[in-house]
Amino acid sequence: MFNFKKYDFKRYNISLLIVTTMLISIGIFLIKQVKPDDYKKQIIGLFGGLFIALIMSLIDYHLICKFYIVLYFINFVLLVLVKLIGVEHYYARRWLDLKFFELQPSELTKIIFILFFAKLFTIFQHRINNFLFITISVILMAVPTYLILTQTDLSTSIVIGLVFVSLIFAAGLSWKIILPIVIIGIPLVMGLFWYVQQDYQELLEPYQQDRILSILNPEEYPETMYQQENSIQAIGSGQLIGKTLSELTEETSNLRGYRHVPVAESDFIFSVAGEELGFIGSCLILLLLAFIIYKCLTTAKNAPDRMGMLIAVGIASMFAFQIFINIGVVTAILPNTGLPLPFLSQGLSSLISSMMAIGIILNIRIQPKKERR
């Protein structure tokens, strides 16, 4: 498990741990501004997450992937347990009560999902363009995605679907298959988007449909857009350097727009960043997040084997899609959907899964170089 002799620790990427620590620390500061009593849990999450990342970085990812089928079934059981005995918050049942904290299995699903399909696509790399194999892969993807969708967690389901597309593309799916899918898929997606706007649609819950319609016609759905409208105002009020630096008098110290943004400490943490840190601070956060994605992609490029490359691509796409969707929602570019911002949002499940991903990336980087076909 810990075969230190074969690792090249000269390639151990300390900068990746430093950047993630910076982001989590910024998140702790922002959470403290919103909920002064809750930030201590995130401090515990910081040290626990670093410990998990360090341990994961020393465990050979090849060993973990040997249990890819076991991991898939463990994930399936956890998602079923959510449906049976899950805890509900904000009309969504996504958590399991473990007494000392609430676990959100869908966050672990993303990591297990990447490891499972990286191993599967490596074993059957010569069948990646086989119709039967593609169909089976889609079914294996659809099962946990459906369970997450019924929690209801549309945003995580979308991220998983996009990560799957990234993985199968990186695995070598032929353009002869991709082009027909794109040609057929674009009109289907447009038709689906039109359909979910109709009164007789049955795919989405009423509140989910309202969120889509509110983005198209915000003036007609003031209650639905309340959270996003206040988020935009909070971000804009931060101006260039943010209220933390520009504030000079105690009389204005409690005037914060994000206090009118529900769940500002979690899914809408970027609105707090915009108001407290301003445009410059928000850009710094985006640069740090972009740095992590860049390191994941360079790890994929220099991975010692095909499986390592696929895992790194999956983790890079997971972070990229999750960041895009979260900030798109906070800035009202996308319909409102609950999705944490990696490393910054409150929530131990999200933080643990993100740090597990970082640990796996670190392990891929220190593996001995091999010739990759």
Write a concise keyword list for the protein shown above.
single chain, mainly alpha, three-stranded antiparallel beta sheet, 14 helices, 65% helix
Task: Write a structural description.
The longest helix has 33 residues, at 269-301. It contains 14 helices and three strands. It has a three-stranded antiparallel beta sheet with strand order 1-2-3, covered by helices on one side. The chain has one domain (4-366). It is an all-alpha fold and 373 residues long. Helix 1 packs antiparallel against helix 12 (269-301) and helix 12 runs antiparallel to helix 13.
Radius of gyration: 21 Å
The average pLDDT score comes to 88
Question: How many domains in all?
Answer: 1
Name the beta content range: under 5%
Q: Uncertain regions: pLDDT < 50 for 5+ in a row?
A: none
Summarize the structure.
The chain has 373 residues and is mostly helical. It has helices at residues 14-34, 39-58, 61-65, 68-85, 105-123, 131-149, 154-170, 175-195, 206-216, 226-237, 243-246, 269-301, 306-330, 348-366; strands at residues 87-89, 92-97, 102-103. The protein is built from 14 helices and three strands.
Topology:
Layout: H1 14-34, H2 39-58, H3 61-65, H4 68-85, E1 87-89, E2 92-97, E3 102-103, H5 105-123, H6 131-149, H7 154-170, H8 175-195, H9 206-216, H10 226-237, H11 243-246, H12 269-301, H13 306-330, H14 348-366
Antiparallel strand pairs: 1-2, 2-3
Helix pairs in contact: 1-2, 1-12, 2-14, 4-5, 4-6, 5-6, 5-7, 5-13, 5-14, 6-7, 7-13, 10-12, 12-13, 13-14
